[in-house]
Amino acid sequence: MKPYRKEVVVEKMNDGELFKYKNIYHNYKLKKIKVEPYVWHISPKCNRESILMHGLLPIQKELINNQFIYLLFANNFSDDITNMYPIASLIYDDTHYIEIPESENEKSKLVKKFEKMYCPRYDFWRINTKISANDWFIDPNLELDLRITNIGANNPKKYVCTKQKIKPKALDLFAYDGKFSKKNVIKGNNGVLHIVSDQLPLKRVV
């Protein structure tokens, strides 16, 4: 099976093309960041076989320092599936058309409803950043997104990107588990027991 996009990192332009696209794209600069041991990339299920074979490839075209670069985006946290892109963006778009309840309990029920609507459509790829050893950067779209959606407010490190592909050996595949319920798990580390919480409603596939 062929990869879902050819592996191109930088696309050069002549002056005329650059002038044209500067009026369409934001001309970003990338800020390097140290990420968590695991970050998450969410992809439609139709890409599963290709990703299993070829890994994750940068596919999002961004204007960085006057040249187009293809980036791969990820979520740099593991405790809130509804704030992960693109799930967060889908939920935000839908809330434009409905009345948001004032009660926090009713808001939670509404978010859970959207979670069950959208999450089953996607694969959740956990990236082991120790194995991949990529350079990671803050998502260059984040500042704009904060002004519009307020997602990830005060924590721009939540959303990251890389210029490099992620090889299959650095990936673990998870799927949404609609029957998930949060539970405490006791884990040992150097003879010390720690109580941790399983936060993401996911189950391991590969």
What does this structure look like?
The longest helix has 15 residues, at 104-118. By secondary structure, the protein is an alpha+beta fold. Strand 11 and strand 12 form a beta hairpin. 24% of the residues lie in helices and 31% in strands. It has helices at 15-22, 48-54, 87-94, 104-118, 129-132, 142-149, and strands at 10-11, 27-28, 32-33, 38-44, 60-64, 67-75, 122-128, 136-138, 159-162, 171-176, 183-189, 192-198, 202-204. The strands form three sheets. Strands 1, 2, 3, 5, 6, 8 and 9 form a seven-stranded mixed β-sheet that branches. The protein has a four-stranded antiparallel β-sheet with strand order 4-7-10-13. It is globular and about 45 Å long. It is built from six helices and 13 strands.
Q: How would you concisely characterize the structure shown here?
A:
This protein is of the alpha+beta class and 206 residues long. The chain contains six helices and 13 strands.
Portion in helices: 10-25%
Number of strands: 13
Average per-residue pLDDT, rounded, comes to 78
The secondary-structure element order is EHEEEHEEHHEHEHEEEEE
Assembly state (oligomeric): single chain
Characterize the biggest β-sheet.
7 strands, mixed
The N- and C-terminal alpha carbons lie at a distance of 18 Å
Q: Give the radius of gyration.
A: 19 Å
Strand pairing plus helix content: what structural class? Answer: alpha+beta
- Please give the count of helices: 6
Q: Runs with pLDDT <50, length 5+?
A: 1-11, 184-188, 192-197
How much strand? 25-35%
3D shape: globular
